[in-house]
Specification:
Chain A has about 475 residues and is an alpha+beta fold. Chain A has 10 helices and 16 strands. Chain B is built from 5 helices and 12 strands. Classes of the chains: A alpha+beta (about 475), B alpha/beta (about 325).
Chain lengths: ~475, ~325
C-alpha cells in the first residue's frame, strides 16, 4: 500500500442509521422447518414495517425528522426531498459548537480530517390518521416457545456531495431491508434446536473503491468459528486471502466515536508527506495506538522506551485482528522474557532496558509473531536501507522497532526516492512524557518526518521488523 | 411562598350549595391541572357519593376507603390533562381535627391513584396536594397543601382564589394511536389473574417507550420551553394534533427463546386527548399530559377487556358446571 487509504473516505457524508427492532413471536412447534417458517414470517413483518409510512428516521442532536416512505416528508419545513444531504449537517448541534465561543479560533486551524457522519435513529410513528379499530385482546393458551429479542439495526450509506435527501434515504431504506434479510439468514443459519443467536451487524472499511461494507455475524460466536463466512466475504469483495479484513477487530471505527481507552490512534495521519524528487511514501498499514512514557500510571521515564515501542507494535496486531490479546504491560513483557529463558526471574519488576532482540522474543512468545532483525553497524548506513524498508511497509505494513546502542524508536514509514536514493523516516517517539495532545505531539515532532541525520551516525542499530501472519 | 390555586368560580357555587344542605360533614375531590410553577388550576369539585345503605347515623365517621375508591374511579374517567389535585371537606368540626382528617385522606387518595399509574414520575412533577376545609356556618375557607411524597410533611398554607372562565379557553392536544403488543404467558399458569400480571408488565415496558418517545405537535418538534400557544390569539381555544415516535429499548436478553404457556396480544387503536391551561403553557407540559393520557387510556382499556374476559369465563365455568349437573342427573 503506497499511501494509507483510510483517508480516502473523507469526501462526502456518511449516513448511519441505528435503532433496535423488536423481534417477537410464538413458536408453537419445535419442528425446525415450522420454526423457521414462523421466524421468516416475523422478519417479513418487520420488513414491511420498515417499508411502511410509520417508519421514521430522526437525525440525532437536531430537530430534523424524516419519513422516508411518505414521499420523504421532513420536518422542519426548510428540508425538502431535494435538499442536499450535507445541508442536514447545519441542523446538528455539536458539543464543539456549544463551546465554540472560547476556542474556535485556535481549533479551526486543524480541521479534523474525518468524514462527516450524520447519525440517525430508526423509530416508528405510533400515531395514525384514518379509520381505526378499537383495541382487541386475544389470548392463545398453548404450551409453546416464545421468541423475544431486539435486532440491533445499524446501516450506513455513503453519499456524495451532490446526493439529495431523497436519493440517500432511498438507499438507506434499501440498506435496512437488506440488513433484515441478512439477519434472517444468519438467525436461521445458526439456529440449533431451540437456541437462537442474535444477529449483529458490523461495518468494515475496505480498500477503495469498495469502501464501507456491512456484514452480519451471530453474536457470541468467535471469529475463529466464522472463518468460512469470512472466506466467502473475502471472495465476494475480491480481497487477498492473507490479510484479515472481516474479523471483529477490523470493524470500522467511526470518526465521531472517540476511543474509550484514551490512546491516540495513527497520529501521523495529520502530517504532510515530505516531497522528494520522484519519491514515494511507504507507510504502516492499518491502525496502531501511540504508546509512550508515563502512560498507564507507569513512571518509565528513562528506561521504558523499547517497552513502549513494543506496545505500539502489539496494539497494531491487536487492532488488525491478528490477536485478541490485549497490549502487554511492562511486567507482562518482562515475564514473557523470563518464560522464554532470556532473563532471570529477578528481571520482572526491574527497570532494565530491553532491545530489538527482546522485542522479537516477546512478539514470538506472546503473539506468535516472527520478526526479521536488520543489523546496522553504523547509523549512517540507515540512509541506504530505503529499498528494504519500503519493501517492508509494502508487504508487511507493521510498525518497526529500532534500537541498539542508543534510544529506541518506532518507524512508521519511509519516503524514499528510487532514483536519487533520498530518504526520510516517519518516526513515532516513545520518549514523549506529556498528555495525549495530537497538536502538540505533531507540532513538536514526537510524531514526525526525520532526515537521515536523525540517527546517531556512529552508533550501531538493530531493527526489529515484525512479519504479519499470512491468514484471514 | 405557598402554592396558589386559581379556582373556577362554579366551584364556589357548588361548595356553597353543599354548605346549605347541612347534612353532616361532606367530603369530595378537587379536580384540575397542575402547573409546574407555583399556581395550579382547579376547575371542578365533586362530592363523594353517599353510600346507599349508609344512614345518617354513620355521621361523622368518615369512610376513607369509600373516598379513595371514588377518587380512583373519577381519576380513571377524567379527560387527559385533568387530575385529582386533592380533597375538600365541609364540616364545622374544629379546624385542627379536620386538618388531621384531610391529611389522612389526601395521602390515601394520592397513594391509590398513583399506584395505578404506569408512568414514571417526572422531575418537574408537583408533589403538593391540596386540601380545602370549608366551615358551613361561617363559610370560612382554609386551604392547605401537603407534600404527599414526604410522609412527614406538615400542612403549608396556600392561596385559594376564585376566578371566572378559568378553563374557557384551554387548548386541546389530541392523537390517534396504534397499539400492537404481544406478551408471553408463563409456562405453568395461564389463569386470567396471571394474564393481568403479564399484561401489566408488558404495558409498563410499552409505557416507558411512550414516555421516552418523541412528540411532535402539529408536525413539529418544539423545544421543551416553547410556549405552546405563542403567536396565537389569546382566549381562543386552540386544537393541536400530536404525533408520537417511539423506539424499543435496546435490551439484550440472554434467553432469546423461553418456554411459555401461550401468549396474549392487544391490538388496535385508541383516541387520546389532553387539555392544557391557557396561561402560557409550555410544549413540555402538553407533551407530558398527552403521553400520560395515552398510557392511562390504553391501560384502562386493557383493564376493561380483561374484566370482560374474566366475566365471560365465569359464565362459561358456570355453563360447564351446569352441563355436568345435567349429565349426572341423566344417569
Amino acid at each position: 500500500m503506497v499511501v494509507a487509504d483510510s483517508q480516502a473516505s473523507d469526501t462526502g457524508t456518511i449516513l448511519r442509521v441505528r435503532g433496535p427492532l423488536e423481534l417477537k413471536c410464538r413458536l408453537d412447534s419445535t419442528d425446525a422447518l415450522l420454526m423457521q417458517k414462523v421466524i421468516s414470517t416475523t422478519f417479513e413483518t418487520l420488513r414491511s414495517q420498515v417499508k411502511s409510512e410509520s417508519c421514521v428516521l430522526t437525525v440525532c442532536d437536531s430537530p430534523v425528522i424524516i419519513w422516508p416512505n411518505r414521499g420523504v416528508h421532513a420536518t422542519p419545513e426548510e428540508i425538502t426531498p431535494n435538499t442536499l444531504c450535507e445541508e442536514i449537517l447545519q441542523w446538528i448541534q455539536t458539543d464543539e459548537q456549544e463551546s465554540a465561543g472560547k476556542r474556535s479560533a485556535k481549533k479551526k486551524s486543524r480541521k479534523s480530517p474525518a468524514a462527516n457522519v450524520i447519525n440517525l435513529r430508526l423509530m416508528m410513528e405510533v400515531t395514525k390518521t384514518g379509520p381505526l379499530s378499537a383495541p382487541i385482546l386475544s389470548r392463545t393458551v398453548q404450551k409453546s416457545l416464545f421468541l423475544s429479542t431486539t435486532l440491533p439495526m445499524d446501516c450506513v450509506v455513503r453519499t456524495t456531495c451532490s446526493d439529495t435527501i431523497k436519493e440517500a434515504f432511498e438507499h438507506l431504506l434499501e440498506a435496512l431491508t437488506h440488513q433484515l434479510c441478512e439477519m434472517e439468514k444468519v438467525t436461521l443459519q445458526h439456529m440449533k434446536g431451540t437456541t437462537l443467536l442474535v444477529p449483529e451487524p458490523l461495518h468494515f472499511l475496505l480498500p477503495e473503491p469498495k469502501g464501507l461494507v456491512t456484514a452480519v455475524y451471530p453474536a457470541g460466536v468467535p471469529d475463529s468459528q466464522l472463518e468460512t463466512q469470512r472466506k466467502e466475504l473475502h471472495q465476494q469483495f475480491e480481497l487477498p486471502d492473507d490479510w484479515p479484513y472481516f474479523r471483529r477487530a477490523n470493524a470500522y471505527h467511526f470518526p465521531n466515536e472517540p476511543y474509550k481507552d484514551g490512546y491516540l490512534r495513527n497520529p501521523h495521519l495529520v502530517l504532510t508527506h515530505p516531497t522528494l524528487d520522484n519519491g514515494k511514501v511507504y507507510l504502516v498499514q492499518g491502525i496502531y495506538s501511540y504508546h509512550h512514557y508515563m502512560q498507564d500510571h507507569m513512571d518509565d521515564n528513562g528506561w521504558g522506551c523499547a517497552y513502549r515501542s513494543l506496545q505500539t507494535i502489539c496494539s497494531w496486531f491487536q487492532q488488525q485482528g491478528y490477536t485478541e490479546r490485549s497490549v502487554p504491560t511492562h511486567k507482562e513483557i518482562q515475564q514473557a522474557l523470563v518464560d522464554v529463558g532470556d532473563k532471570q526471574g529477578s528481571f520482572v519488576g526491574s527497570r532494565q532496558w530491553i532491545g530489538s532482540i527482546e522485542v522479537q522474543a516477546v512478539l514470538n512468545q506472546l503473539l506468535e509473531v516472527t520478526s526479521k532483525i536488520m543489523f546496522v553497524s553504523q547509523g549512517s548506513e540507515l540512509a541506504s536501507k530505503g529499498r528494504e524498508l519500503a519493501n517492508h511497509f509494502l508487504t508487511e505494513g507493521t510498525p518497526i522497532m529500532i534500537g541498539g546502542g542508543v534510544l529506541a524508536h518506532t518507524i512508521l514509514g519511509v519516503a524514499w526516492s528510487e532514483t536519487t536514493g533520498q530518504i526520510r523516516y516517519l518516526i513515532l517517539d516513545p520518549h514523549y512524557t506529556g498528555a495525549e495532545d495530537l497538536q502538540l505531539i505533531t507540532d513538536k515532532g514526537w510524531c514526525g518526518w526525520k532526515s537521515p541525520d536523525f540517527w546517531d551516525q556512529t552508533a550501531y542499530y538493530n531493527l526489529c521488523l515484525p512479519q504479519r501472519p499470512k491468514t484471514i | 411562598m405557598g402554592r396558589g390555586y386559581i379556582v373556577e368560580d362554579t366551584v364556589e357555587g357548588y361548595v356553597s350549595k353543599l354548605c346549605e344542605q347541612q347534612v353532616g360533614p361532606v367530603t369530595g375531590l378537587l379536580i384540575g391541572q397542575v402547573n409546574s410553577t407555583q399556581r395550579d388550576f382547579v376547575v371542578m369539585a365533586t362530592r363523594t357519593p353517599q353510600k346507599e345503605e349508609s344512614t345518617a347515623a354513620a355521621g361523622n365517621a368518615l369512610d376513607k376507603e369509600w373516598v379513595t375508591e371514588h377518587a380512583r374511579q373519577v381519576s380513571r374517567m377524567l379527560p387527559g390533562g385533568l387530575s385529582v389535585l386533592g380533597v375538600f371537606i365541609i364540616t364545622d368540626t374544629d379546624a385542627k381535627d379536620t386538618l388531621t382528617t384531610l391529611r389522612q385522606l389526601v395521602f390515601a387518595v394520592e397513594n391509590l391513584i398513583s399506584s395505578e399509574h404506569l408512568w414514571n414520575p417526572a422531575d418537574d412533577d408537583v408533589t403538593d396536594c391540596v386540601t380545602l376545609h370549608v366551615n358551613p356556618k361561617t363559610r370560612k375557607t382554609v386551604c392547605r397543601t401537603f407534600d404527599v411524597k414526604d410522609p412527614k410533611s406538615t400542612a403549608k398554607p396556600a392561596d385559594w382564589k376564585y376566578q371566572s372562565g378559568v378553563c374557557s379557553s384551554w387548548s386541546m392536544v389530541s392523537c390517534c394511536l396504534n397499539v400492537d403488543m404481544l406478551v408471553p404467558l408463563p409456562d405453568n399458569r395461564t389463569s386470567t389473574e396471571n394474564m393481568d400480571k403479564c399484561l401489566k408488565e408488558g404495558l409498563k415496558v410499552w409505557a416507558d417507550q411512550i414516555q421516552s418517545g418523541i412528540c411532535l405537535i402539529d408536525g413539529k418538534k418544539l423545544p421543551e420551553d416553547t410556549e405552546l400557544t405563542a403567536g396565537q390569539k389569546r382566549n381562543v381555544r386552540q386544537t393541536y394534533t400530536a404525533q408520537l415516535l417511539i423506539t424499543p429499548d435496546d435490551q439484550r436478553l440472554t434467553d432469546v427463546v423461553q418456554r411459555c404457556g401461550g401468549s396474549v396480544s392487544v391490538r388496535g387503536a385508541i383516541h387520546s386527548r389532553a387539555y392544557v391551561h391557557s396561561n402560557k403553557p409550555k410544549a413540555r407540559l402538553a407533551e407530558k399530559l398527552l403521553k400520560r393520557d395515552v398510557v392511562s387510556t390504553v391501560a384502562t382499556r386493557v383493564q376493561m377487556l380483561l374484566e370482560e374476559l374474566l366475566i365471560s369465563e365465569e359464565e362459561k365455568g358456570h355453563c360447564a358446571a351446569l352441563s355436568l349437573y345435567v349429565l349426572t342427573c341423566q344417569r
